[in-house]
TrEMBL record:
Keywords: Hydrolase, Protease, Thiol protease. The keyword Mitochondrion does not apply. Gene3D superfamilies: endopeptidase domain like (from Nostoc punctiforme) (3.90.1720.10). This is C40 family peptidase. The lineage of its organism: Bacteria, Bacillati, Bacillota, Bacilli, Bacillales. PANTHER family: MUREIN DD-ENDOPEPTIDASE MEPH-RELATED (PTHR47053). Belongs to the peptidase C40 family. Residues 48-174 form the NlpC/P60 domain. Pfam families: NLPC_P60.
Length: 174
């Protein structure tokens, strides 16, 4: 009986050692999942830095860009909403297609409750339910976009809540 109990302890102890060794790769090393977690944190940090640079670039264009429907003219800083986002993202090495419909299919879907700075947000500003405007979420319930209206022609920041009835979807491209 004592021999059987001693063998059980050895087997249990060996199993625990094997589980610990496998979990840590080798004794004294961090678990393999820690490395992938660290890589994920680094990628997230790089995305946040890129988003910050994109937003800064967009803000620098306030008062300099003119809205022109269907126009993509970087040399004169004349853009529609999607050529503006295309231009600003390209400055940080992110390639976007021209057109709200095309941009709304790039990247991955993001729910409104999970928006992060740098996400593209899409609206219907004329035909209900049809995407025809895009902006860049900048955080704190605000976004920046190139638009035209009775008192504006160019890049402005707006409250997302003011566009809640027009909001359609968002995409993460960073």
């Amino acid at each position: 009986m004592q021999l059987r109990k001693a063998l059980q302890n050895v087997v249990i102890g060996s199993t625990c050692f094997i589980l610990v060794a496998v979990g840590f790769g080798a004794v004294g090393q961090a678990p393999a999942y820690a490395a992938s977690s660290q890589a994920s944190i680094s990628a997230s940090s790089a995305s946040a830095q890129k988003a910050s640079a994109i937003i800064s670039q967009a803000k620098r264009l306030i008062g300099k860009v003119k809205y022109k429907f269907g126009v993509n003219n970087p040399s004169k800083l004349w853009f529609d909403c999607s050529s503006f986002t295309k231009y600003v993202f390209a400055k940080q090495g992110v390639s976007l297609k021209w057109g709200t419909k095309a941009q709304s299919k790039q990247g991955t879907y993001v729910s409104k409750s999970n928006l992060r700075a740098g996400d593209l947000i899409f609206f219907s500003v004329s035909t209900p339910g049809r995407i025809n405007h895009v902006g860049i979420y900048i955080g704190n319930g605000k976004f920046i976009h190139n638009t035209i209206g009775s008192s504006v022609n160019g890049v402005i920041t707006s409250n997302l809540s003011s566009y809640s009835k027009r909001y359609i979807t968002a995409r993460r491209v960073l």
